[in-house]
Amino acid sequence: MPLFPRQLIPFFCAAALSVVSFSSLIAGEIELIGRVSLPGMTRDLSGLKGTVAKKYPRDLFGGISAIDYTGAGNRYLLLSDRGPLDGAVSYPCRFHVAEIDIDPEKTPAVSARLLETHLLKDIDGRSISGAAAKSEGAETPLVKRLDPEGIRCTSDNKLYISDEYGPAIYEVTENGVVSGELQIPGHFRIAVPHADSEKEASLNSQGRQPNKGFEGLALTPDGRYLVAIAQAPLIQDSVPTKKGKRRGQFSRLFVLDLKTGKNRQWAYPLTETKNGISEILAISSTEFLVLERDGDGGDEAHFKAVTHVDASQATDISNVSQLPTQGLPQGVKPLKVQPWLNLMDERFGLKGPQMPEKFDGLTFGPTLPDGSRTLVVAVDNDFEPDVPTELFVFAIPANKLNK
């Protein structure tokens, strides 16, 4: 039986780019083969009625913070984050199932159809809200409020979703029921959550920065390891600037062995300290792709890239309670990070006024007939009605994944 069987298939609009040049792929070049652009007012299949904040339909499709290929046909999971207005309203959290067809020989080369929308619910069947106001007071398990940022699926239909608020990683059924929570080291957790980010920052001396928790989530191809990455350095691994923003050199990765329950941490050196991490994708148990970007869009954007990460020589920093803001303690090796895919490369035609601000999702898709791998990059439109949700599909020559 296929994963997430088809229910309803309204068509999304699709926009085509130039068809991939296979001679370029043979020469080892990554190529952008197509894109899908979904209007900001696209509706999902939740069936919810009414609006929030008198503006945003409760069935508004958008805010895509993560994407994952199910491995079944052309089916993908797309995760919406906590809702419009950065958690200021009570928006039921959800994920979607879509079919994305990729064929470089067709025009358009990429098209998409929405199949299903699943509301996230607790074990008692109650809808889970993304409202930040639900975060005040002591943490409670399973699950008080949720800011979903990463999603990965297993071969037996189990889902893992990472949360920025906790941060946390939850086990979720294919129907959207949160059924379990994985144990996270204390390094990442804050003691006093608060709906107001400035107040929250003043109340905590360690843990994730406000709205900068587990932004990325990876599952290794063998299904054994979950890897979560914080969007920015933790409070204790950073220092405030004159403008009040905290800066540090290293974001932490949390690695959980699902077989033994053992865990470790690695240090990811940011290319620029003002950058953030949006996503992580596993090539193997020691190689990853990381989506790193600045916080600007259009002509203001200057850094949007996917880096290649080698963890084979990285030191476990689980026992390092506080990282220096520059350099690492003697004998501690960070992850080896190399440039891999520059999304601002002139060849892709994205640089300029049309450059999206938030590249947020990353997944491999099916292998093309010539042996190259597809890579899908999703854009978060923050639920803004005049900003499209976009999916960009790249063709990756096999030698580019064998660093």
Strand content: 35-45%
Intertermini distance: 36 Å
The name CATH uses for the topology is Tachylectin-2, Chain A
Q: What is the helix tally? A: 2
Compute the number of structural domains.
1
Helix content percent band:
under 10%
Known CATH architecture: 5 Propeller
Give the helices and strands as they follow along the chain: HEEEEEEEEEEEHEEEEEEEEEEEEE
Shape: globular
Short description:
The protein is built from 2 helices and 24 strands. By secondary structure, the chain is mainly beta.
Please explain how this structure is put together.
The longest helix has 7 residues. Strands 1-24-23-22 form a 4-stranded antiparallel β-sheet, with no helix packed on it. The chain has a 4-stranded antiparallel β-sheet with strand order 4-5-6-7, with no helix packed on it. The two termini are 36 Å apart. 3% of the residues lie in helices and 36% in strands. The protein is mainly beta and 403 residues long. The protein has a single domain, classed as 5 Propeller (Tachylectin-2, Chain A), CATH 2.115.10.
Keywords, please?
403 residues; 4-stranded antiparallel sheet; Tachylectin-2, Chain A; 36% strand; 3% helix; mainly beta; 2 helices
List the helices and strands and how they pair.
Blueprint: H1 22-26, E1 31-38, E2 51-52, E3 56-57, E4 64-69, E5 75-80, E6 94-102, E7 110-119, E8 148-153, E9 159-163, E10 168-172, E11 178-181, H2 197-203, E12 214-219, E13 225-230, E14 239-240, E15 246-247, E16 250-257, E17 263-269, E18 276-282, E19 287-293, E20 304-310, E21 336-342, E22 359-367, E23 373-379, E24 389-396
Antiparallel strand pairs: 1-24, 2-3, 4-5, 5-6, 6-7, 8-9, 9-10, 10-11, 12-13, 13-16, 14-15, 16-17, 18-19, 19-20, 20-21, 22-23, 23-24
